[in-house]
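Data card: per-record layout.
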Amino acid sequence: FIGSYNQPDLIKRAKEAPGGNMYLTFLRNMKRAGVLDMVRVLKLPSSVAAMLFDDASVDFCFIDACHAYAAVATDLAAWWPKVRPGGVLAGHDYRCDMHPGVTRAVNEFFPDGVTEKEGSVWWKEKPPSPAPV
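The structure for this 133-residue chain is written out next.
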C-alpha cells in the first residue's frame, strides 16, 4: 500500500493518499464494489504474506504488488504452491510497456502461457488433481 520501490510516481501518489498510503483507498474501493467482506487484507509484502497460507489452500490470488522483475518472480514462486488444484493465480500489468518485468517473470514462470484479458490482466488456472484410481 506504499507503492513499488521502482515506481516513484506510485510512491508519491501513495504518500498523498489519505493516511499516507493506498490502504484506505483500497478499503473504500472494495466496499464500493461490495466485496470487502470477501477479501482478506494483509498489510505485508506479498511473499511474506504467502507464508501465512498452507499449500493448496487458496482458491484465487491476484498479484498486483511490486512490478520489478525480481519481485514478480518471487511472488509467483511464493503464491503458486498456495493455489489449490482448480484454483487461479492472476495478476495485473501484463504486456504493459511501463512494466516489462511483469511480462518477463510471468512468461518465464509459465512457459506454456497464461490467459490474458484486455486491460493487462493475466491468469493461470492450476490443473485439477487427478482423480483417485
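Known properties of this structure: Residues 69-79 form the longest helix (11 residues). The helical segments are 8-16, 23-32, 46-50, 69-79, 100-109.

See the next section for split statistics.
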